[in-house]
């Protein structure tokens, strides 16, 4: 039997997040992933960014539920180039096997991270 492709997800915001100049060293933006399917999915999130942390960066989203992800920026240089974080998801398997095998079927979505400059930020 052929493997079924994973269901679609929705994200909020849909394709990008923004960090604005701020007096605090750390800024946190919240991001939601919604599983619209009638079955559970496994997800993982990764980035090459050295200044952002993502928690949780993996887990299971039950059927018709959502999870809130915290993305924390530890400061940036004004004018820093946008970065990307990637969400991968696959059908959840209760047996505990790796659902993200190299040749496995999975969904992938890229979300851009923008670092606003002070002139683009309205107080």
TrEMBL record:
GO terms for cellular component: cytoskeleton; pseudopodium. SUPFAM superfamilies: PapD-like. It is found in: Cell projection, Pseudopodium; Cytoplasm, Cytoskeleton. Keywords: Cell projection, Cytoplasm, Cytoskeleton. PROSITE patterns: MSP. Transmembrane segments: none annotated. Pfam families: Motile_Sperm. InterPro entries: Ig-like_fold, MSP_dom, Nematode_MSP, PapD-like_sf. The keyword Cytoplasm applies. Residues 8-123 form the MSP domain. Central component in molecular interactions underlying sperm crawling. Forms an extensive filament system that extends from sperm villipoda, along the leading edge of the pseudopod. This is Major sperm protein.
């Amino acid at each position: 039997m052929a493997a079924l492709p994973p269901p679609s997800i929705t994200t909020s915001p849909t394709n990008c997040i923004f960090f604005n100049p701020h007096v605090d060293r750390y800024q946190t933006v919240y991001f939601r992933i919604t599983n619209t399917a009638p079955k559970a999915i496994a997800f993982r999130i990764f980035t090459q960014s050295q200044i952002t942390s993502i928690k949780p960066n993996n887990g299971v989203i039950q059927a018709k539920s959502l999870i809130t992800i915290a993305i924390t920026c530890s400061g940036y240089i004004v004018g820093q180039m946008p970065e990307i974080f990637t969400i991968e998801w696959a059908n959840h398997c209760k047996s505990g096997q790796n659902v993200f095998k190299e040749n496995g079927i999975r969904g992938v979505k890229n979300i851009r991270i923008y670092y606003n400059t002070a002139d683009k930020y309205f107080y």
